[in-house]
Amino acid sequence: MLTSCPSTRELEDILAYHPRGPRHPAHHGTCGPRPECMGQGNMVPMAGWALCTALVLAVLAEVVGETRYEKFLRQHVDHPRTSVLTAHRYCETMLARRQVTAPGRPCKPSNTFVHAPAEELLAACAQTPDAVGLHSTPTPMGLTACRLRGGDTRPPCAYRARQLQHHVRIACLNGLPVHLAGTHAPPQ
């Protein structure tokens, strides 16, 4: 009787057995919040089940989709800066092209594109992290900060773009940037 989330190794075994991922938890000796499981005494608590589901989805995304580093590059690195037909549509164009915004999904309130080589962001991960574990680029970089106009997050998404020269703060995992935490102006 399994009453906890499967280990990463167990998830890999499940994925190896089922190319499309687990089809039904009962196939793997678990019983989740389903009517046929009620009263069997082997039910994973609801909070645990949600955590277990999130873990399975994270592993599936890693196996069949892009890595966190690849997602970071897709969402935040545009080097050299893409020229679009109309400069004022840069944010809308890039966010759609990079699938940061998608039809039927809410507009992302803000997104930043860094116009520097990915290697410069990789080098930032080698810098000493600050008190909260974030790394900053040693020199300012060209970037475009996209901010949603107005407060409505329903498409169509309209953004205001600002060209800046800022340091970039990132979270790194295993030496790779995985999250753009913010930017800050160089000291004057």
UniProtKB/TrEMBL annotation:
TM region positions: 46-65
Family annotation (Gene3D superfamilies): Ribonuclease A-like domain
Subcellular location field: Secreted
Keywords: Disulfide bond, Endonuclease, Hydrolase, Membrane, Nuclease, Secreted, Transmembrane, Transmembrane helix
A Gene Ontology term for the protein's cellular component: extracellular region
GO biological process: defense response to Gram-positive bacterium
GO terms assigned for molecular function: endonuclease activity; hydrolase activity; nucleic acid binding; RNA nuclease activity
Annotated ranges, domain Ribonuclease A-domain: 65-184
Main location: secreted
Family: Belongs to the pancreatic ribonuclease family.
Protein name: Ribonuclease A-domain domain-containing protein
Organism in which the protein naturally occurs: Accipiter nisus (Eurasian sparrowhawk)
Lineage of producing organism: Eukaryota, Metazoa, Chordata, Craniata, Vertebrata
